[in-house]
Amino acid sequence: MSRPGSPGVQPGPERKSSEPAPGDPVAVRDAIPPSGSPELALAELQAGNRRFVAGAPHHPNQDAGHRAAVADGQHPFAVIVGCSDSRLAAEIIFDRGLGDLFVVRTAGHTVGPEVLGSVEYAVTVLHTPLVVVLGHDSCGAVQAARTADATGTAPEGHLNAVVDAVVPSLRRAAAEGVDDIDRIVDIHIGCTVEAMLDRSAVLAAEVAAGRCAVVGMSYRLAAGEARVVAAVPPRMGAVDGTQPAVAAAVA
Ligand SMILES: [Zn+2]
Fold first, then answer.
1. CA pair distance 102, 99, nearest whole angstrom
2. Model confidence over 191-215: pLDDT tens digits?
3. Dihedral sign computed on CA atoms, order 216, 220, 225, 229
4. C-alpha of residue 148 to centroid of ligand 1, in Å
5. pLDDT for 247 beyond 50
6. 140 pLDDT band (50/70/90 cuts)?
7. Beta-carbon neighbour count of residue 160 at 10 Å?
8. Measured on CA atoms in the order 210, 71, 42, 123, is the torsion positive or negative?
9. How confident is the prediction for the chain on average, in pLDDT?
10. How far is the CA of 41 from the centre of ligand 1 (A)?
């Protein structure tokens, strides 16, 4: 059920059962408790990414039995706010399946009102404990923004909205003396984490209450590895034993 302060969207099917598909060994092995912590959710994503990088995916929760089991309700353990890039398919790179991830994708993981509303739905109605901003190297949206900013030429049509949303990250990178495109991407991921918490009081409240965390992850197209580069609260950046390169401020 929707809690006070949740967005004014109609709740979809809510979780009806935390039970895995009967007789489905893959679902049993990879089941995530619906009340799982942000740390558990991030650890599960990182485990799946390691399987993907190693070329040994389990393809959990992709069989017909699990498809039927989740038809009556969903309880995804992570929200992925990722770039639309065709090489950044969340369920593949994190080795997950149906019902596991609530995915919102825009070019350059820009976060307008519809994106924020979708995230708020997941964290308040579905009680998803982790939000991940997923960016990547060689991001075309960041490159387009860089070109537009350098030439002073705005792209035509709605693409300009994407560029406008990325330009503040370019300013941040310039202020920090960063010129490398992939380091700019990491800064843009951190800026997106901050922007989501600045713009969404609902999300910020969930994080402040300890029910949710927001993490930025940077993906490498060739290697397939996703590493944490920003985290709120900051302790989330150490779940995999590393420290975030960009520590976003706590909202
Ligand atoms: Zn991209």
1. 8
2. 999 999 999 999 999 999 999 999 9
3. negative
4. 16
5. no
6. very high
7. 14
8. negative
9. 86
10. 24
